[in-house]
């Protein structure tokens, strides 16, 4: 039964939902349009590397790699009021956003975007600024 449910959820994601990896220019365009941007990295990463100006800090994984579901979904829910509303997530290198993004899509969120290559390999390498 669990396998069938998982297959149906994945089918829904593939047919009806959009999880899209976007480059720096599209990221900046969407952010200017007012789409919420969530930085899912840890507080230590925010302090060490900085954050993209205007992004909301919403840690999803603890320093030990454990999901922080309640905290993340509380923060997400403050700005994303329905599952069709688009939003962007980013992490250091886009590995965590891949996992989280697919999970969010499986939960019914329809327009989830991620910053391609994350803040370090995408944003900073493109010469964009961060704030500390």
Give a description of the structure.
This protein has helices spanning 2-16, 24-32, 43-49, 69-79, 95-106, 118-124, and strands at residues 18-22, 36-39, 56-57, 87-90, 111-115. With 132 residues, it is of the alpha/beta class. Helix content is 46%, strand content 15%. It contains six helices and five strands; from the N terminus they run H-E-H-E-H-E-H-E-H-E-H. It has a single domain (2-124), classed as 3-Layer(aba) Sandwich (Oxidized Rhodanese, domain 1), CATH 3.40.250.10. Helix 5 links the parallel strand 4 and strand 5. Strands 1-5-4-2-3 form a five-stranded parallel sheet.
Q: Could you give a short description of this structure?
A:
The protein is an alpha/beta fold and 132 residues long. The chain has helices at residues 2-16, 24-32, 43-49, 69-79, 95-106, 118-124; strands spanning 18-22, 36-39, 56-57, 87-90, 111-115. It has a single domain (2-124), classed as Oxidized Rhodanese, domain 1 (3-Layer(aba) Sandwich), CATH 3.40.250.10.
CATH architecture: 3-Layer(aba) Sandwich
* Share of residues in strands: 15-25%
What structural class is derived from the secondary structure elements?
alpha/beta
Instruction: Please give the order of strands in the largest beta sheet.
Output: 1-5-4-2-3
What's the main sheet like? 5 strands, parallel
What is the total number of structural domains?
Answer: 1
Shape: globular
Let me know the number of strands. Answer: 5
Give the count of helical stretches.
6
Query: What's the gyration radius in Å?
Result: 15 Å
CATH topology name: Oxidized Rhodanese, domain 1
- Reading the helices and strands in chain order gives HEHEHEHEHEH
Distance between the termini: 47 Å
Contiguous runs where pLDDT drops below 50 for at least 5 residues: none
The level of helicity is 40-55%
Q: Write down the overall mean pLDDT.
A: 89
Q: What would CATH call the homologous superfamily?
A: Rhodanese-like domain
